[in-house]
Amino acid sequence: MDAQGKVEENARLDRVAFLDNLKWFVIILVVLMHLNVTYSGNGLWYYREQASYGPLSGLLFGLYGSLTQAYFMGLLFFISGYFSPDSLERKGPARFIRSRLIRLGVPMLAYVAIVHPLTIWIAGLADSAAPDMAGWYVDYVVSLDFLLSLGPLWFLLLLLVLSIAYAVWQGAVGEPAPAIGQRKPFQVGHRSVAAVAVLIAVLAFLVRLVQPGGVPLFKAVPGNFMQVGFFASYVLMFAVGILCRTHDVLDGISYRFGMRWFKWTLILGIPVWFLGIPASAIVAESHGAVPDIGAFFGGFRWQSAFYATWEAFFCVGVSLGLVVLFREKFNGLGKLTHFLTQNSFGVYVFHPPIIVAGALLVRNVQAPPLLKMYVMAAVLVPLCFAVSHVLRKVPVVRRYFS
Q1: Ranges assigned E (strand) in 13-144
Q2: How far is CA 271 from the centre of its chain?
Q3: DSSP state, residue 127
Q4: DSSP state of 128
Q5: Residue 351, exposed/middle/buried by CB under 10 A (0-12, 13-18, 19+)?
Q6: How confident is the model at residue 13 (pLDDT cuts 50, 70, 90)?
Q7: Transmembrane residues, as ranges (predicted)?
Q8: HSE-up of residue 301 (Cα within 13 Å, Cβ side)
Q9: How far, in Å, CA of 252 to CA of 255, rounded?
């Protein structure tokens, strides 16, 4: 690469550094989410500590779980979608698909072959003795359960499907589109942002008529966390990311506009959430009934429509706000942020056995579950990055987990 090429490449990296920073930030939220599930017992995970806690702790567990679930994975799909057009334009559909199969397929194979079994073995120690791993592994392969045991790497599977669909669609369009950067920029207004949220809400409600949120696809096996009921925002946010790149949308969104959506989403979204699941639970318990929380996650019910709408607007508003916030305030890579960026994908892949092992080490410590979650988060998040850093010193690991 000549001097001019290096200048252009550095300029490009500076422009997208905020998305790299946003990615490691969201991946930290992923680790925290799984710790939240570990200590609250709410959600799908390898190990959930069976501990009782009061209503305030339950409210705080639920608040973090619901608010984070609404936007964090959708934001990762947005980032992935944003980077896809450049790669597709540079490589063409065939090479793009081949590179995605390798880039995403190798980590998935490594996960189902090594990381998932290791996590199962560690989680088995909660029952006083490790399981017969030889017998378990044979059954794991013969039963084809390994096809579903992707753990958090369901993200890569869906991303691979979306990437292939995008490449096939682009290849079938016919006339090549104008080169990126030569297309007419699209100006975003309040109506277009609201339209995306409404589209996500409608699609989520329809999907949950047949596949409720929080229910794994196909059958419940350890490590199957594919919850199609939440996929509506993921698919549409991936598409929005593509459109934002191909039409230079992000450059046209002012900081004030994005932060206004961010501010009002938080100001209105959090109280509205309280009017949903928590208020419903309080009313049900006051009448001596068992709260029907599942009504908010599927079926032809007003609760499901309410939650899908709240979730969609929270997803879009928070995502928009975080994108412009990181673009304006965190658009650079220092030593620390470069380290976090380089190791974030490794953290995403390798964190399950680390946090399960950490939780088991302190499971006999008598402390409120919420406090244990905070303390373990302070210990395990840095540990996950350290482990990723060490593992990535191996060349083949560095190649596929960066």
Answers
A1: none
A2: 24
A3: G
A4: T
A5: buried
A6: very low
A7: 21-39, 59-83, 104-126, 146-169, 190-210, 225-244, 264-284, 304-325, 345-365, 371-391
A8: 15
A9: 10
Q: Dmax of the chain from CA atoms? A: 74
Residue 226 token pair: 């594919």
pLDDT tens track for 348-402: 999 999 999 999 999 999 999 999 999 999 999 999 999 999 999 999 999 999 8
Residue type, 166: Y
In the numeric block, which tokens belong to residue 295?
A: 């009504």
For the residues 122-145, what does the mean pLDDT come to?
83
Phi-psi region of 223 (alpha: psi -120 to 50; beta: other; left: phi over 0): left
With contact defined as beta carbons under 8 Å apart, do 294 and 359 qualify?
no
Q: Which two tokens stand for residue 361?
A: 């080490």
Token look-up 């979608």 returns: 81
Whether the CB-CB separation of 374 and 365 falls below 8 Å is answered with no
- Whole-angstrom CA distances from 237 to 82, 150, 196, 374 are 10, 22, 9, 30
- Distance between CA atoms of residues 322 and 317, nearest Å: 9
- E runs forming strands in 131-243: none
Contacts of 151 (CB under 8 A, 6+ apart): 46, 111, 115, 116, 119, 223, 225, 352
> How far is residue 65's CA from residue 145's CA, in Å, rounded to a whole number?
27
Q: How far apart are CA 367 and CA 376, in angstroms?
A: 12
Cβ atoms of 71 and 315 within 8 Å: the answer is yes
Which amino acid is present at 112? V
